[in-house]
Write a structure and sequence with these properties.
Rossmann fold, two-stranded parallel ribbon, binds NADP nicotinamide-adenine-dinucleotide phosphate, globular, about 15% strand, about 325 residues, 2 domains, binds ligand G4F, UDP-galactose 4-epimerase, domain 1, alpha/beta
Length: about 325
């Protein structure tokens, strides 16, 4: 039975990837960091099928011990300080975990077992102030946040360890992907959570920042399959994973509110607190390499994604209220 280690298993992608790997017959080990309150809600349904081990990307000894004790064939590095806005208030922490954390893990792999296949969760945020539309694997980076800068470091150190030590190390440049399990601070989930609250009479306003930003939004459940496919290739390469479509925050708002027969103009207030010091205005990916080499394509459309998230948030609030 193949064994995979997932860092960031308590997050959105970690939970979907763990479920997917179980369906592929994997033994799944998930690294979790110590928290004062248990935060296993996303993996609650599979907790008895996976093994959770303590560790932290800030602590290389913990990474070495986990690899020595569990001997995975594949490592998926999904752990990160992943919220762009927070990266301006905690830039050093973000650089340490999201950037240097990748080196700690790659070096632990080099020391313990250089035969391990490694996946790095790179991001379309690296394209930032884009120099090419659509963005592809060869598009130069121009990050616009401490998070984006840290991800560029993680991306290049992954390539460097591949070229320096011959590791099977792959970087997936994933565009925004969402789901009912998305953290509530990200704009899509913030919108669908508020649409549900407004529909159920629990609030009457939604405060947002820049409504003009455009993103290439896909479904997280589709994207974790691409991660796995990348590690099944004989030759490690980097891939853009995206839908090839872009939509504005305003469009997301409109579709979400219209789905429950409401007009977003009646509820949304623009609040400077949610504006960013530097914005990424437009992201749209070209996933043709992933299509050609991996046979990957997204299954869930933009409208289906919005509706799925609104439905899930209404259901969640009905159950909890
Ligand atoms: P997420 O929901 O924020 O999950 C992040 C995970 O990282 C959580 O499990 C978190 O643990 C863990 N973590 C944070 N700091 C850590 C540390 N110091 N040591 C160990 N674990 C730590 O993020 P996601 O949306 O699933 O994204 C997964 C990865 O893909 C991230 O690297 C993200 O930057 C990248 N990415 C995401 C997208 C997207 O649109 N979702 C697009 C491109 C790239 P806790 O639960 O304890 O906080
Ligand atoms: O949902 P967001 O916070 O996601 P963002 O910044 O695009 O980052 C996400 O996608 C990246 C991939 O490109 C990942 F690497 C990263 O880890 C994360 O998952 O913001 C999306 C857009 C931004 O332009 C933001 O300015 O929505 C705009 N926005 C407008 N009002 C808002 C808000 N974003 C948030 N979070 N909250 C608002 O109130």
């Amino acid at each position: 039975m193949p064994k995979a280690l997932i860092t960031g298993i308590t997050g959105q992608d970690g939970s979907y990837l763990a479920e997917f790997l179980l369906t592929q017959g994997y033994e799944v080990v998930g690294m979790v960091r110590r928290t004062s309150t248990v935060n296993f809600h996303r993996i609650a349904e599979i907790q008895d099928q996976i093994e959770l081990v303590p560790g932290d990307l800030g602590d290389q000894i913990s990474l070495i011990h986990i690899l020595e004790q569990h001997r995975p064939q594949e490592v998926y590095n999904l752990a990160a300080q992943s919220f762009v806005q927070t990266s301006w208030t905690q830039p050093v922490f973000t650089g340490d975990v999201t950037g240097l954390g990748v080196t700690r893990l790659l070096d632990a792999i080099r020391i313990v077992d250089p035969g391990i296949r490694f996946y790095q969760a790179s991001s379309s945020e690296m394209f930032g102030k884009v120099v090419e539309v659509p963005q592809r694997e060869s598009t130069p980076f121009y990050p616009r946040s401490p998070y984006g800068v840290a991800k560029v470091y993680g991306h290049w150190i992954t390539i460097n360890y591949r070229e320096s030590y011959g590791l099977h190390a792959t970087s997936g440049i994933l565009f925004n992907h969402e789901s009912p399990r998305r953290g509530r601070e990200f704009v899509t989930r913030k919108i669908t959570n508020h649409v549900a609250q407004i529909k159920l009479g629990l609030t009457d306003e939604l405060r947002l920042g820049n409504l003009d930003a455009q993103r290439d939004w896909g479904f997280a459940g589709d994207y974790v399959k691409a991660m796995w496919l990348m590690l099944q290739q004989d030759e490690p390469q980097d891939y853009v994973v995206a839908t090839g479509e872009t939509h504005s925050v305003e469009e997301f708002l409109r579709v979400a509110f219209e789905y429950v027969n409401l007009d977003w103009h009646d509820y949304v207030i623009q609040d400077p607190r949610y504006m960013r010091p530097a914005e990424v205005d437009l992201l749209v990916g070209d996933p043709s390499k992933a299509g050609a080499n991996l046979g990957w394509e997204p299954a869930v459309s933009f409208t289906e994604l919005v509706k799925m998230m609104v439905d899930a948030d209404i259901e969640l609030l009905k159950v909890s209220s």
